[in-house]
What we know:
By secondary structure, the protein is α/β, with parallel strands linked by helices. Helix content is 35%, strand content 23%. Strands 1-2-3-4-5 form a five-stranded mixed sheet. Strand 1 and strand 2 form a beta hairpin. Helix 1 packs parallel to helix 3 and helix 3 packs across helix 4. The two termini are 26 Å apart.
Amino acid sequence: MDPRYHSIKKISERGNIITYYAHPSNATAYTDTEGILLHCDNALKYVGNNNWICIINSEDFSIKHALEIKTGIGIAKLVMSKYANNLIEIKIINPTWHIKTMLNVLWPFLNQITRNKIKILEDRYYSVLEFV
């Protein structure tokens, strides 16, 4: 399988904190909701009792990605039902207005605690290497 088929991957583990990275616009199968949800669940199941952070690079995230609302809602529900307790933070780097629109759609599916853990870093361009 093409390693870019889906987007999320573990990039580091320090102590009991696992860091994941996702670059949705680089996924070649961004319309494969079922496959993406399975891929996310398989990647996150290794969290166990560890804490985790996710860095989402939304560079080049466009309308075609934002229209995959079913995928976004599915990921939000997956995180809320299985992985929210150990979530430290979701950092969204290089945000486009499309990702902000998608977040507005997803907001009702997230509880307030999880909403507070989502940080949009829009003051400058970021590289994932800054977080590893």
